[in-house]
């Protein structure tokens, strides 16, 4: 049997878009068929029906109205599907035969532009990864704002750094070449990035084609101008990204015009564990903003400012000049409250300029968007004049970057109605006085419109029908409605058109004549308004890059104002940042915990760490005393300083850090099939292999995931490795292994700190105060008591503890010390192994060793065995 012509057309199009759900436009609906319909009806929770398509069985089918399609598409995108939008590309009224249809756009998680599908405070990144045996190229963009970046990683450990970058970028979708399939790396990318990942076929990775795409997109003659002529990996990643965009978007990428080529060394590098552990932009488990550093610092007034703040926190600076610029600007904004308040008022009135520019470039902007653009531009001159001579060079530079965009303001102000509709095809957008042609047509129908408007009154009077009404609907056009009780008064020239329960609807020849003039003119007006609107939008497209530069300056200002606002409110101070090695914090506080603490006040603490005598702070103290809080607060204060924010302390001196590493808590990665201990050791390996003399390491309870001796040995070896390494990396190390505290004075740079607790009547009170020296004990049972563990369990634990303490094998530190001193050199080769444990001789073992087995009888042997057993039991 033959397929119906429409289904034939459907099949031909679907053939080309196998990996997408095809939204096939049929009149006012998008329809889906076959497998697509089954999947979509399940995922979107809509009814599955069937359609005759020329075969015996019906084709499974489901559909959604075109005007509500966004929310349905959003559901599919969220679940990782791709949606191909197939439109009617000719007017059905004039089409001969079947209406021509084409796929006009493919929507994927990383290429969403519709406002309804985007989170305004978050970028929607699409990342492209090109992996090779020599390194990795990354390119990523947000087509809703026009941002596009690229970098490449070539040095050792590039795969790990690639994963770190992906965590930082937090892309919604990642595309990669087939090489990423090797050794299951793609799964690792999936788990670490949480993005939808697809492997693209080889034709996306042809060097010449990639180059051509890039030159065309950025309208340059050579790659040199872009600064990537020697970055083969970047070129491949970027080429594939652009090819993918052309394929999915088909048009409207002109706003991706400025390529940002970055070097990961240009920022403080944060590995994936650190970004998560320090809860920079979301909490570790619940993934909420509230409870994260962003939750405290983000008081931005614009969505683009909020997005930029996220970037700044994930990418703190490591260039002193740039850090200083931000800090100085924040200082001025903190001091000049009036200036800050005025800027705040202006910022509140600015819409998401970046995304408005994106929508204008993609051809998605409507009349409301243009009014939002005009209203945002309105405040720019004020903002510029506030900043122009404010006395801070960075803020003044921002002012120079802001364009007052007065041409666009005038254009929109003269042309677009104050409250335009959402649609752009149904008129009501263009202001009177902007187009002579439009005004003339509008004028020509004024008489007809007012005749219709007055018809109800005149007819009521003429006929005496009090309930007479004039109405309009799409099927019959204008009509005169008369209720039942007045039927006998209906005049002869009324022609009946429709009968309803209680009334009849009529037309008159005269009414139809006027209606035809009015409706024809209205169609013309709508068409003309649409054309004029497109012209205006096109004119604005010429200013996209100016709008983008302006919005970049506005969002930076927004973040700085927010930093100063929070700093003033929460009593932060300006840190003294320098290129030295010392981190000195006086009365530091944890920025998040101090705002969430329920009972009592946050206890501030000092930190001093350098690369000489205090490079390794060994922190002991019971659980819940505040060790993690103290270490995190140090890391966060460093990070905030380098992001350009003031810090929660009375004073802070920060020697710039190139990387912060954290190994905090037990982050199980069972999804990846790795044990907690394996993850812990992998993270540790990464830290020890890549930390530099400028790094800061935070280690919390290293070695806990294995047996006590194993764990203690590993922790000990790590302390020794770090203290002896030539870098003397600044390290904060919290541990339960009290044995390690004996290393103070032996290990170069090691300082013991502990968190003070008070013991009273068998209970402990946490003072949260960091003091010098080591903790005397662990107080584990006290903490268990506080947590409500039953008394009988606590008693048994206490008994067991006494027994264990009495029989514990002690570690002979004297021996170790002697060994070290004998070597005369505190700094050892990094690879050298030393036997740092030496246990006190065990009498049982010693006696066994001394036995001469050849010269004792079996009964003597039994006697000795009995003695040994007794000795062991004691
Ligand atoms: P530890 O790492 O020693 O087990 P945490 O750092 O996790 O302890 O702290 C436990 C809790 O103690 C925190 O959640 C917080 O409520 C409180 N706390 C920690 N440090 C302080 C402080 N400096 N001031 C007040 N409360 C604190």
Automatic annotation (TrEMBL):
<keyword id="KW-0067">ATP-binding</keyword>
<dbReference type="InterPro" id="IPR000432">
    <property type="entry name" value="DNA_mismatch_repair_MutS_C"/>
</dbReference>
<dbReference type="GO" id="GO:0003684">
    <property type="term" value="F:damaged DNA binding"/>
</dbReference>
<dbReference type="GO" id="GO:0006298">
    <property type="term" value="P:mismatch repair"/>
</dbReference>
<dbReference type="InterPro" id="IPR007695">
    <property type="entry name" value="DNA_mismatch_repair_MutS-lik_N"/>
</dbReference>
<dbReference type="Pfam" id="PF01624">
    <property type="entry name" value="MutS_I"/>
</dbReference>
<comment type="similarity">
    <text>Belongs to the DNA mismatch repair MutS family.</text>
</comment>
<dbReference type="InterPro" id="IPR036678">
    <property type="entry name" value="MutS_con_dom_sf"/>
</dbReference>
<feature type="domain" description="DNA mismatch repair proteins mutS family">
    <location>
        <begin position="695"/>
        <end position="711"/>
    </location>
</feature>
<dbReference type="InterPro" id="IPR005748">
    <property type="entry name" value="DNA_mismatch_repair_MutS"/>
</dbReference>
<comment type="function">
    <text>This protein is involved in the repair of mismatches in DNA. It is possible that it carries out the mismatch recognition step. This protein has a weak ATPase activity.</text>
</comment>
<protein>
    <recommendedName>
        <fullName>DNA mismatch repair protein MutS</fullName>
    </recommendedName>
</protein>
<dbReference type="Pfam" id="PF05188">
    <property type="entry name" value="MutS_II"/>
</dbReference>
<dbReference type="InterPro" id="IPR036187">
    <property type="entry name" value="DNA_mismatch_repair_MutS_sf"/>
</dbReference>
<dbReference type="InterPro" id="IPR007861">
    <property type="entry name" value="DNA_mismatch_repair_MutS_clamp"/>
</dbReference>
<dbReference type="InterPro" id="IPR027417">
    <property type="entry name" value="P-loop_NTPase"/>
</dbReference>
<keyword id="KW-0227">DNA damage</keyword>
<dbReference type="InterPro" id="IPR007696">
    <property type="entry name" value="DNA_mismatch_repair_MutS_core"/>
</dbReference>
<dbReference type="GO" id="GO:0005829">
    <property type="term" value="C:cytosol"/>
</dbReference>
<feature type="binding site">
    <location>
        <begin position="621"/>
        <end position="628"/>
    </location>
    <ligand>
        <name>ATP</name>
    </ligand>
</feature>
<keyword id="KW-0238">DNA-binding</keyword>
<dbReference type="Pfam" id="PF05190">
    <property type="entry name" value="MutS_IV"/>
</dbReference>
<dbReference type="InterPro" id="IPR016151">
    <property type="entry name" value="DNA_mismatch_repair_MutS_N"/>
</dbReference>
<keyword id="KW-0234">DNA repair</keyword>
<dbReference type="InterPro" id="IPR007860">
    <property type="entry name" value="DNA_mmatch_repair_MutS_con_dom"/>
</dbReference>
<dbReference type="GO" id="GO:0140664">
    <property type="term" value="F:ATP-dependent DNA damage sensor activity"/>
</dbReference>
<dbReference type="InterPro" id="IPR045076">
    <property type="entry name" value="MutS"/>
</dbReference>
<keyword id="KW-0547">Nucleotide-binding</keyword>
<dbReference type="Pfam" id="PF05192">
    <property type="entry name" value="MutS_III"/>
</dbReference>
<dbReference type="GO" id="GO:0005524">
    <property type="term" value="F:ATP binding"/>
</dbReference>
<dbReference type="InterPro" id="IPR017261">
    <property type="entry name" value="DNA_mismatch_repair_MutS/MSH"/>
</dbReference>
<dbReference type="GO" id="GO:0030983">
    <property type="term" value="F:mismatched DNA binding"/>
</dbReference>
<dbReference type="Pfam" id="PF00488">
    <property type="entry name" value="MutS_V"/>
</dbReference>
């Amino acid at each position: 049997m033959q397929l119906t012509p429409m289904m034939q057309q459907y099949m031909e199009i679907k053939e080309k878009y196998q990996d997408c759900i095809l939204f096939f436009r049929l009149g006012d609906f998008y329809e889906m068929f076959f497998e697509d319909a089954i999947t979509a009806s399940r995922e979107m929770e809509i009814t599955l029906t069937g359609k005759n398509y020329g075969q015996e069985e019906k084709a499974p089918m489901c559909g959604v109205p075109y005007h509500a399609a966004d929310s349905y598409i959003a559901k599919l995108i969220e679940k990782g599907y791709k949606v191909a939008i197939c439109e009617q590309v000719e007017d059905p009224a004039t089409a001969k035969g079947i209406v021509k249809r084409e796929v006009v756009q493919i929507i994927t998680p990383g290429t969403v532009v519709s406002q309804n599908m985007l989170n305004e405070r978050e970028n929607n990144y699409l990342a492209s990864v090109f992996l090779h045996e020599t390194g990795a190229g990354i390119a990523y963009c947000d087509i809703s704002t026009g941002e596009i970046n690229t970098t490449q990683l070539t040095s050792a450990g590039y795969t790990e750094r690639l994963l770190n970058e992906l965590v930082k970028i937090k892309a919604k979708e990642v595309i990669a070449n087939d090489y990423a399939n090797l050794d299951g790396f793609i799964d690792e990318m999936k788990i670490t990035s949480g993005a939808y990942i697809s492997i693209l076929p080889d034709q996306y990775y042809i060097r010449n084609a990639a180059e051509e795409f890039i030159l065309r997109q950025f309208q340059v003659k050579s790659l040199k101008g872009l600064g990537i002529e020697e970055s083969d990996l970047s070129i491949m990643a970027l080429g594939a990204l652009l090819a993918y965009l052309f394929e999915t978007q088909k048009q409207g990428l002109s706003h991706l015009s400025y390529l940002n080529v970055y070097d990961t060394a240009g920022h403080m590098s944060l590995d994936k564990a650190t970004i998560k552990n320090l809860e920079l932009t979301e909490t570790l488990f619940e993934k909420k903003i509230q409870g994260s550093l962003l939750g405290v610092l983000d008081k931005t007034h614009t969505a683009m400012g909020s997005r930029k703040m996220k970037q700044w926190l994930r990418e703190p600076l490591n260039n002193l000049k740039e850090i200083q610029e931000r800090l100085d600007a924040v200082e001025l904004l903190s001091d000049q409250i009036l200036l800050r308040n005025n800027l705040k008022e202006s910022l509140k009135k600015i819409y998401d300029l970046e995304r408005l520019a994106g929508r204008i470039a993609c051809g998605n902007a409507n009349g409301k968007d243009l009014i939002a653009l005009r209203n945002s531009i309105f405040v720019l001159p004020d903002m510029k004049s506030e900043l122009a001579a404010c006395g801070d060079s960075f803020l003044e530079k921002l002012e120079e970057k802001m364009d007052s965009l007065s041409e666009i303001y005038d254009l929109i102000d003269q042309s677009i109605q104050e409250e335009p509709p959402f649609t752009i095809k149904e008129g009501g957008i263009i202001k009177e006085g902007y187009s002579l042609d439009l005004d003339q047509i509008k004028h020509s129908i004024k008489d007809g419109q007012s005749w219709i408007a007055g018809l109800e009154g005149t007819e009521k009077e003429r006929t005496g029908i009090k309930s007479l009404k004039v109405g309009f609907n799409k099927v019959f056009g204008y009509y005169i409605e008369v209720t039942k009780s007045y039927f006998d008064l209906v005049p002869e020239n009324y022609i009946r058109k429709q009968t309803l329960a209680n009334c009849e609807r009529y037309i008159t020849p005269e009414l139809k004549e006027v209606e035809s003039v009015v409706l024809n003119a209205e169609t013309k007006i709508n068409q003309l308004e649409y054309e004029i609107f497109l012209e205006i939008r096109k004119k604005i497209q010429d200013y996209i890059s100016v709008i983008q530069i302006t919005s970049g300056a506005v969002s930076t200002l927004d973040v700085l104002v927010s930093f100063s606002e929070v700093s003033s409110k929460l009593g932060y101070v300006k840190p003294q940042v320098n290129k030295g090695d010392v981190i000195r914090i006086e009365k530091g506080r944890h920025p998040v915990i101090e705002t969430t603490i329920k009972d009592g006040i946050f206890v501030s603490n000092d930190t001093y760490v350098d690369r000489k005598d205090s490079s390794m702070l060994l922190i002991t103290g019971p659980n819940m005393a505040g060790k993690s809080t103290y270490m995190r607060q140090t890391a966060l204060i460093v990070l905030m300083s380098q992001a350009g924010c003031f810090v929660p302390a009375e004073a802070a001196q920060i020697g710039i850090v190139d990387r912060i590493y954290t190994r905090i808590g037990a982050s199980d990665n069972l999804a990846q099939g790795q044990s907690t201990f394996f993850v812990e050791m992998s993270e540790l390996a990464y830290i020890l292999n890549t930390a530099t003399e400028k790094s800061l390491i935070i280690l919390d309870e290293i070695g806990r995931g294995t047996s006590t001796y194993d764990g203690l040995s590993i922790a000990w070896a790590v302390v020794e490795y770090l203290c002896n390494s030539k870098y003397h990396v600044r390290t904060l190390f919290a541990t339960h292994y009290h044995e390690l505290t004996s290393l103070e004075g032996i290990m170069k740079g090691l300082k013991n700190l502990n968190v003070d607790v008070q013991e009273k009547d068998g209970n402990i009170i946490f003072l949260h105060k960091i003091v010098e020296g080591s903790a005397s004990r662990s107080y584990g049972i006290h903490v268990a008591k506080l947590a409500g563990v039953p008394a009988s369990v606590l008693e048994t634990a206490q008994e067991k503890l006494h027994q264990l303490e009495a029989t514990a094998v002690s570690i002979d530190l004297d021996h170790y010390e002697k060994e070290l001193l004998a070597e005369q050199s505190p700094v050892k080769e990094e690879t050298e192994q030393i036997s740092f444990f030496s246990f006190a001789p065990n009498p049982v073992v010693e006696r066994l060793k001394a036995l001469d087995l050849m010269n004792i009888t079996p009964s003597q042997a039994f006697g000795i065995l009995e003695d040994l057993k007794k000795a062991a039991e004691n």
